[in-house]
Design goal:
single chain, about 625 residues, five-stranded parallel β-sheet, 28 strands, about 35% helix, binds 5'-O-[(S)-butoxy(hydroxy)phosphoryl]adenosine
């Protein structure tokens, strides 16, 4: 067995024989180990020019001094996390078989990482596919990337050290990566021949009590199609331990995806190998961290670094870039969408956007009009629009319409479905969990997920107080959300942005959304301010499109829109037209600044360093001053 498991070193020896070594250029580490083994005690340095030991010598040594033979070979060929202290301790009379005692290694690291460090582009696998002449070469780098991706996916789906995973896949690089991925996280794989029936498959899964099955939609063998996924579906009906079925695609056929099924290809954005992923966030913000740098690079994606702005040199910049770079996934902020929408459709239509498949939005609630524009104009009604909700503290996307079954409904302006491992809970004001559909409350999570924040650097208590105090036992996001009858989530905005007008509690985002449905209004920001009679009243800042027409007319239309869409009490008492809103560099409206301006607390504006353009403060101040003057003269 030992000779077999170290077979790779022996193959290298053969590869290094005259006529092979130079041509293959493989590192002759196994050879030097053998040389040392043959030419002196372990660890001694062979004299320069020592010839490799002959086969008979090696054979005698392996038989007579196993420790001196296998020890250095194992040391040099494999990567040990913990070195072994004893090469062997075996006794056939008692059946004791012990090799490399005390040593620990991860075989996937020995198989992949050590080669990737030295020669990442060496071909690891040549996949001779069923269709003759269509072979595919996979480099060590590619195999490591796929393995890591799968290993992470398995971990995300609760596969832990010691858990069993069934691999029901025909011979393919992905099947190899699945094996190595299991080895990498310490899971036990059982590779089941992809010609077995549903009954045989179920028997093997049940014997091993597997948690997960990995399979393909279909297999191809000898020109025949094998319906692997259908067979798995049938088998897992009788396998109570199976929690997930991970499904990759060997052919184009779409297969039915049920509750247990998880597509293996990327998840929210439908990233496929070779795609160009265009997240236009700045790397100074979390979106840039997770979706420009770490996420795409960990997944071997091609990530676009966008240095510019959406309107430089003109409002067609994004779409010109999409055309030129052939971007497949575009991920941006609603604020930019609203800004571009204001400039009209011609800037978009001018460019070829046929490469786009997924359009993502993040950072704020995306209002209906912006969502529709992204969908209809940018995406030509053919792209998947994903409104993704998450926060700096969550590390990555928590609620998004995908992953879900191919073609599953996507409702406008809604993040909709919790991502894997995310278990939302909505709470009422008293901290009771709201069950069922058609309820609104504080958005909390009842379970931890791998990417979430672990602490606040240097102040763990602050972390506990900020996120875990309001609702004991739950992570509190600070946002409010509505759960529909269908079980989908819609974010209503920060809980701090809830105002109470004459006893009616409503999110300022609701009023903003209603006003932004007006064709002349791309952007609004609503804040609450103290009111003698109503308790609080709404103050709206609005930006008008270039061709908005008569502004008084727009304002009166806005009042009636809010009255009909929400209620009369929600109509803002004051509406002020501004050229632009104060925004952070990540695109969030700084409502706190607007509130301070309205309250006259301009000496105490707080930290404004994250403002995209600090000159906005005087701009808003003077607009507000004019507004007050106008009100005073008209009274
Ligand atoms: C806050 C987090 C997430 C990365 C960028 C911002 C708001 C974010 C959405 C969305 C409604 C959203 C929330 C959240 N938010 N995405 N799709 N729909 N609101 O990260 O600066 O930590 O801000 O942004 O209010 O709590 P952040």
């Amino acid at each position: 067995m030992a000779a077999r498991s170290l077979g790779c070193g022996v193959w290298r020896l053969l590869g290094s024989l005259p006529g092979h070594a130079g041509a293959r250029g493989w590192p002759p580490r196994g050879v030097s180990a053998l040389r040392r083994a043959a030419s002196g005690p372990s660890g001694s340095v062979p004299a320069a020019g020592v010839q490799p030991a002959s086969y008979p010598t090696l054979r005698v040594q392996a038989a007579q001094q196993p420790a001196a033979f296998w020890g250095p070979l194992a040391q040099e060929t494999l990567l040990w996390d913990t070195p072994y202290h004893t090469v062997w301790d075996c006794d056939f009379s008692s059946g004791k078989i012990g090799w490399f005692l005390g040593g620990q290694l991860n075989v996937s690291v020995s198989c992949l990482d050590q080669h990737v460090r030295k020669s990442p582009e060496s071909v690891a696998l040549i996949w001779e596919r069923d269709e003759p002449g269509t072979e595919v070469r996979i480099t060590y780098r590619e195999l490591l990337e796929t393995t890591c991706r799968l290993a992470n996916l398995l971990k995300r789906h609760g596969v832990c050290r010691g858990d069993r995973v069934a691999i029901y896949m025909p011979v393919s690089p992905l099947a190899v990566a699945a094996m190595l991925a299991c080895a990498r996280i310490g899971a036990v794989h059982t590779v089941i021949f992809a010609g077995f029936s549903a009954q045989s498959l179920a028997g093997r899964i049940n014997d091993a009590k597997c948690k997960v099955v990995i399979t393909f939609n279909q297999g191809l063998r000898g020109g025949r199609v094998v319906e692997l996924k259908e067979i798995v579906d049938e088998a897992v009906k009788h396998c109570p331990t199976i929690q997930y079925v991970l499904v990759a695609h060997r052919t184009d056929k779409k297969v039915h995806m049920g509750n247990l099924d998880v597509p293996l290809e990327q998840l929210v954005f439908d990233y496929q190998p070779g795609d160009i992923f265009g997240c236009v966030a700045d790397i100074g913000w979390i979106t840039g961290h997770s979706y420009v740098v770490y996420g795409p690079l960990c997944n071997g994606a091609t990530s676009v670094l966008f240095e510019s702005t959406p309107v430089y040199p003109d409002p067609g910049r994004y779409w010109e870039m999409v055309q030129r770079l052939k971007i497949n996934q575009f991920y941006g902020a609603p604020t930019a969408v609203r800004l571009l929408l204001k400039h009209g459709d011609a800037w978009v239509k001018k460019y070829d956007r046929s490469s786009l498949r997924t359009l993502g939005s993040v950072g704020e609630p995306i209002n209906q009009e912006a969502w529709e524009w992204l969908h209809k104009v940018v995406g030509d009604s053919r792209c998947t629009v994903v409104d993704t909700w998450w926060q700096t503290e969550t590390g990555g996307i928590c609620i998004a319409p995908r992953p879900s079954e191919e073609g599953a409904e996507i409702l406008p302006s809604m993040a909709m479905r919790p991502f894997f491992g995310i278990v939302p809970a909505l709470m009422d004001e008293k901290g009771n969990i709201l069950e069922g559909g058609d309820v609104s409350g504080a958005l909390c999570f009842s379970q931890a997920w791998p990417g979430m924040a672990r602490t606040i650097y240097g102040d763990h208590q602050r972390f506990v107080d900020a996120y875990f105090k309001a609702y004991p036992g739950y992570y509190f996001s600070g946002d409010g959300a509505h759960r529909t009858k269908g079980g989908y989530y819609q974010i209503t905005g920060r809980m701090d942005d809830v105002i109470n007008i004459s006893g009616h509690r409503l999110g300022t985002a609701e009023i903003e959304d209603a006003m932004a449905s007006h064709p002349a209004v791309p952007e609004t920001a609503v804040i609450g301010y103290p009111h003698d009679i109503k308790g609080e009243a709404a103050f709206a800042f609005i930006v008008l499109k270039d061709d908005a027409g008569d502004s008084d007319m727009v304002i009166s239309e806005l009042r009636s829109t809010v009255a009909t869409k929400i209620a009369k009490y929600a109509v803002p008492d004051q509406i002020l037209i501004v050229k632009r809103l104060p925004k952070t560099r990540s695109g969030k409206v700084m409502r706190r600044l607007l509130r301070k301006i309205i309250l006259g607390r301009t000496q105490d504006l707080g930290d404004t360093t994250t403002l995209e353009d600090p000159s906005i403060i005087t701009e808003i101040l003077s607009a507000y001053q004019r507004h007050k003057d106008k009100k005073a003269t008209s009274q």
